[in-house]
Specification:
Elements lengths: L11 H8 L4 E7 L14 E7 L9 E5 L2 E4 L5 H17 L4 E6 L7 H13 L6 E6 H10 L6 E4 L1 H15 L6 E5 L5 E5 L16 H13 L3 H17 L13 H15 L1
Helix pairs in contact: 2-3, 4-5, 6-7, 7-8
Length: 270
């Protein structure tokens, strides 16, 4: 849902995440066959785990005096613990072996420091997962130089929002980047990383892959594995053939043409 820039209501996306307690935002970035990037040969396969309810996105702002505005970065022990526990359990369940926590605790010693305290506490419970910490800016440099050195990356809200756009760029763009918002008791909401992208709707130029991949994450969450596998195979085959792909990844097809080809492949496989 679109959020007004610099005015208007509080983000509806953030409101939904808080209402349903969706504390973990899972944003995988994986090289897609047929989408050529500078990283295609070595491959990218990284999962961003982003705290989803607080940080700089808490919406706590006020005017101190005219011309001076203060924005509060809220970090709590509970939210930090929740996302850390989800990240390590996700790593075990999905065959991941390495988690890097990103931070700027050298500057924001109390807030990012608290986040790291909880990450370290949870890491002690998972000795089979290699855990380390890295400055956010250093990680930006290192992942661009060699994304294969990273497996999973765990970070506070704002950092995760920005960093996941960077990793999306490594695989070909936001049109390929899915995400899931995860909470307790199996509650989850899935969405494309790019948001509404309504500026592309009128021209039918939008790439629906990110939304399709988000839907696949949802199907697997619902334990509908065979349905997800069938749709995923059709999507990946269409991308690999490159006959009906959208302009953002080097093709000329419209959104309906791309979608129709995926549907045709699904019907053919049934």
């Amino acid at each position: 849902m679109r959020t007004a820039i610099g005015k208007g209501h509080v983000s509806l996306n953030l409101t939904i995440r808080r209402t349903f307690g969706l504390y973990a935002n899972v944003r995988p970035a994986k090289t897609v066959p047929g989408v050529i990037t500078p990283y295609s040969e070595g491959g990218v396969d990284v999962v961003i785990m982003r705290e989803n309810t607080e940080g700089e996105y808490s919406g706590i702002e006020h005017t101190v005096v005219p011309g001076v505005v203060q924005s509060v970065k809220l970090i709590t022990r509970l939210a930090s613990r929740n996302v850390a526990e989800y990240a390590f359990k996700y790593a075990v369940d999905n065959g991941r072996s390495n988690i890097v926590a990103l931070h700027k605790a050298n500057i924001m010693k109390m807030s990012d420091g608290l986040f790291l305290e909880e990450c370290r506490a949870v890491a002690e419970q998972y000795p089979q997962i290699k855990y380390r910490e890295m400055y956010l800016d250093s990680a930006c440099l290192k992942i661009v130089k060699d994304p294969t050195q990273f497996d999973m990356m765990l970070m506070p809200n704002l950092y995760g929002d920005i960093f996941s756009d960077l990793t999306s760029g490594l695989i070909g763009g936001l049109g390929l980047a899915p995400s899931g918002n995860m909470g307790k008791d199996g509650i989850a909401i899935y969405e494309a990383v790019h948001g509404t992208a309504d500026d592309l709707t009128a021209t039918n130029k939008g790439n629906p892959t990110a939304l399709l991949m988000s839907g696949l994450m949802m199907l697997r969450h619902l334990e509908l594995q065979s349905h997800a596998d069938k749709i995923e195979a059709a999507v990946l085959e269409t991308l690999k053939e490159r006959k009906f792909v959208t302009g953002d990844i080097g093709g000329t097809a419209t959104n309906p043409q791309y979608t129709a080809e995926i549907c045709r492949k699904i019907r053919a496989s049934s």
